[in-house]
Amino acid sequence: MGILLADDQPEVRRALTALLDRQPGMKVVGQAIDAADLLAQVETVNPGTVLLDWELPGGSQASLVSALRGVRPELVVIALSGRPEARQDALLAGVDAFVSKADPPEKLLETIEFVGANGASANRDPS
Fold first, then answer.
1. pTM of the model
2. Domains along the chain?
3. Could you tell me which residues are beta bridge partners of residue 97?
4. Which of 65, 60, 74 is nearest to 115 (CA)?
5. What residues have CB less than 8 Å from 47, skipping those under 6 apart?
6. Residues 17-34: pLDDT tens digits?
7. Dihedral sign of CA atoms 42, 45, 48, 50 in order
8. 61-102 tens-digit pLDDT
9. CA gap 35, 13 in Å, rounded
10. CA separation (Å) from 114 to 8, 19, 50, 103, 109?
11. Where are the alpha helices (DSSP H) in 27-121?
């Protein structure tokens, strides 16, 4: 499964890459630092999943999710945030799942596997 990371913090991207590339069947295929970069890369690297920092710079997150769906309707979008209270807004915007950055890494891996197995469909959050 090809995963595109979208986070403006290099240390978060490094940590996620280290975690994901150790998992069988998961491979980080790109890294985006803002909304424009993310949209460009979705078209070029063809990921199956995007891990989207809910505070990613470059515009409204709801508009970004809509734009991602417009480019690749089957794309799995999992929102990440250091603010657990952002969960509701992210799910209402149409992401497939939400994981707090404070959650243990196992929670993120479980979510990626769950949503990946069930396909992209808004609000299929396993929590």
1. 0.91
2. 2-118 (3.40.50.2300)
3. 78
4. 74
5. 2, 3, 4, 29, 30, 41, 75
6. 999 999 999 999 999 999
7. negative
8. 999 999 999 999 999 999 999 999 999 999 999 999 999 999
9. 15
10. 26, 17, 14, 16, 9
11. 35-45, 61-71, 87-93, 105-118
